[in-house]
Amino acid sequence: MHNGTSLTQFIIEEQRHIAGATGDFTSLLNDIVTACKVISHLVNHGALVGALGSAGTENVQGETQKKLDVLSNEVFIKSNEWAGHLAAMASEEMDAIYPIPAKYPRGKYLLTFDPLDGSSNIDVNVSVGTIFSILRCPGGGSEPTERDFLQAGTQQVAAGYALYGPSTMLVLTTGNGVNGFTLDQNIGEFILTHPRMQIPADTSEFAINMSNMRFWEPPVRRYIQECLDGKEGPRGKDFNMRWIASMVAEVHRILTRGGVFMYPMDSKMQAKGQGGKLRLLYEANPMSFIVEQAGGGAITGRERILDLQPESLHQRVPVILGSKNEVERILSYHQA
Ligand SMILES: O=P(O)(O)OC[C@H]1O[C@](O)(COP(=O)(O)O)[C@@H](O)[C@@H]1O
Ligand SMILES: [Mg+2]
Ligand SMILES: [Mg+2]
């Protein structure tokens, strides 16, 4: 595929290599893309469309929802519930699964999504995103259940994210590499600008929320300390640090120039009985699929994320992903 190809064209081409894919998959992806375009408009217009501030409600994770969390969730539901490709959806902002209402036909796919990622950055005009993952519904989709969503990340048919930054981009994998598209606001179409994205195996850049340092496990503390020791330390080279607090923006930086992103397990979360910060089904799994398809690695610290068997819809896991050699080094520190 050459630069300048539209996303619509690209999706039709991609469908050709997916076993059993019919037009359903193509138009499902197009509906998701439409939802991201609408959310991009809301993000870009912020206060002008009343999209800033708190919604005054809490989601199942006990987090205060932002207006844009709720608005983006509604946009995703409205764009994807009517066309007959889905059996059900699941979202960060909805406690239970959302079976497609009886007034619409049901289809063979399941969609999980984080409608607005990086919510703490909305009101300060820093890049945010949307993350999504597509699964097949066991049993064809007539009576979908929560259990149907609890599939290992290796079962994903496709995954992607939209990044609402200086430009709006969409990055997608269907298991055949990773491609990035930029929204041409003039024609309202995503255009292929970043074909076959690859993550460099080595890096000198790490991303972690340092304010949690005193709660980290020894392997993570050792890895970060060695990065901070730089040239004078065992790594023999200096490292730079970044933390945007929007997972989508961190992963996009890593896809573009390498790096390692870490939201590891820590004693504060353990004390709360929490399995991590980020959610397996609609953050860790789709991002791990994309990162692995771009030549990187994605682990919990001790295991490959895509091999995990999900136990619940909003399950949280530790996430360490990015440049392959760094991720393998961090894995070895956990195994040591
Ligand atoms: O506030 P912290 O500890 O920096 O955490 C930031 C992390 O939390 C998240 O914002 C969680 O995602 P949501 O905004 O979708 O809830 C990630 O995007 C980001 O990596
Ligand atoms: Mg998120
Ligand atoms: Mg979110």
By CATH, the superfamily of the largest domain comes out as Fructose-1,6-Bisphosphatase, subunit A, domain 1
> What profile does the largest beta sheet have?
8 strands, mixed
Just give the CATH class of the largest domain. Answer: Alpha Beta
- What count of domains describes the coordinates? 2
List unreliable stretches of 5+ residues. none
* CATH architecture annotation name of the largest domain: 2-Layer Sandwich
Binned strand content: 15-25%
Oligomerization state = single chain
Strand arrangement within the widest β-sheet reads 4-3-5-6-7-8-9-10
Helix and strand pattern: HHEEHEEEEHEEEEEHEHEHEHEEEH
Bound molecules: 1,6-di-O-phosphono-beta-D-fructofuranose, magnesium ion
The percent of residues in helical segments reads: 25-40%
CATH topology of the largest domain: Fructose-1,6-Bisphosphatase, Chain A, domain 1
Count the E strands. 17
- Radius of gyration of CA atoms, rounded to a whole number: 19 Å
EC number: 3.1.3.11
Binding site for Mg(2+) 1: 92, 114, 116
Binding site for Mg(2+) 2: 114, 117, 283
Domain Fructose-1-6-bisphosphatase class I N-terminal: 6-195
